[in-house]
Amino acid sequence: MGYGIVMPIAQDWTAERARALPGDGNRYEVLDGVLAVTPAPSWGHQHVALAFARALDEYLRRHAIGRAIVAPADVEFSPQRLLEPDVFATPLVEGRPPRAFSEVGRLLVALEVLSPSTARSDRITKRRIYLSESVGEYWIADADARTVERWRAGQERPEVLDSVLRWEPVPGIPPLDLDIGALFAEALGEG
């Protein structure tokens, strides 16, 4: 799932400054005031992201809980925290999908598809940010290992799943059971 280099290039950045950068195909994120630049993802990376997004969105729509979104889409927690999760889910706003993150201000789940160049940022910096911003769960999908690391607030280590990921975003609503192996196989054209 190669994706180039995540390059923190400057500090004291804000979401507003990052949005003013040219549309050059790179992903610009502001991680606690540091501008991180990532080249466009590979096709395999995008196939995995879309497979997760489809499964999440189908579940969220079926139960009228929310919607799943695929990057590029800004999630601005503060002027110093502008992220573009590969996939994320938001709750509905007054029964309809939100039009912008500012309408909901929270995520049910955020997912990053791992690549060698983003592993450190995904596992350390972004994990810390997502969990400090009360994101319900943070998932890191590793297509090479065919696993998902699930992080929740207060955990010192992730739960590493390789068969079924059970997600219960709302008590009293049936959970989503994702067959991890089948999802990766379908996404990567192996099944």
Which short descriptors sum up this protein?
191 residues, alpha+beta, tt1808, chain A, six-stranded mixed β-sheet, 5 helices, 30% strand, globular
Strand content: 25-35%
* Apparent shape: globular
The CATH architecture classification is: Alpha-Beta Complex
Distance between the termini: 18 Å
Low-confidence stretches: none
Rg, alpha carbons: 16 Å
Number of domains: 1
**SSE order, one letter for each helix or strand:** EHEEHEEEEHEHEEEEEH
How many β-strand stretches? 13
Overall pLDDT: 91
Number of helices: 5
What top-tier CATH class fits best? Alpha Beta
Task: Assign the structural class, choosing from mainly alpha, mainly beta, alpha/beta, alpha+beta, or little secondary structure.
Answer: alpha+beta
Spatial order of the strands forming the largest sheet? 4-7-8-9-10-11
Main beta sheet, described? 6 strands, mixed
- Any idea of the CATH topology? tt1808, chain A
Helix content range: 25-40%
Describe this structure in words.
The structure is a single chain. This protein has 191 residues and is of the alpha+beta class. It has one domain (7-187): tt1808, chain A. 27% of the residues lie in helices and 30% in strands. The protein is built from 5 helices and 13 strands. The strands form 3 sheets. Strands 4-7-8-9-10-11 form a 6-stranded mixed beta sheet, with helices on both faces. Strand 10 (147-151) and strand 11 (159-161) form a beta hairpin. Helix 2 (43-62) crosses helix 5 (180-187). The protein is globular, with a radius of gyration of 16 Å. The model has no long low-confidence stretch (mean pLDDT 91).
